[in-house]
Amino acid sequence: MKYLLVVFFLMDGQWVKGEASKGWGALAYDTEAACLTSKARAEEIHRNLKQVNPRALEKRFKCMAEQSKTND
């Protein structure tokens, strides 16, 4: 099973999933542990960014199991 690291942005009071077409698509990882490691790194980078630029958009990162694709 693959795990996806998904980024969400807080826009107008709602969390919006990042779009691949805008460079914010989900990143796939082979294991949940690898995804969680990258999530922790992304959160740390964002924390550091907020210290330098408090007006930067709020971001939230989440590891999600990849949904299997079915042909219905």
Instruction: Provide mean pLDDT, rounded.
Output: 93
What's the total number of strands?
4
Gross morphology: globular
Provide the domain count: 1
Helix count, DSSP H or I runs of 4 or more residues: 1
Terminal Cα separation, in Å?
Answer: 21 Å
Structural class: alpha+beta
Low-confidence stretches: none
Q: What string, H for helix and E for strand, traces the elements in order?
A: EEEHE
Radius of gyration: 14 Å
Q: How does the major sheet shape up? A: 4 strands, antiparallel
Task: Explain what the structure shows.
This protein has one domain (3-65). It has 1 helix and 4 strands; from the N terminus they run E-E-E-H-E. The chain has one helix at 32-52; strands at residues 3-11, 14-17, 27-29, 59-65. Strands 1, 2, 3 and 4 form a 4-stranded antiparallel beta sheet that branches. Strand 1 and strand 2 form a beta hairpin. The protein is globular, with a radius of gyration of 14 Å. The mean pLDDT is 93.
Keywords for this structure?
single chain; 72 residues; alpha+beta; 1 helix; 29% helix
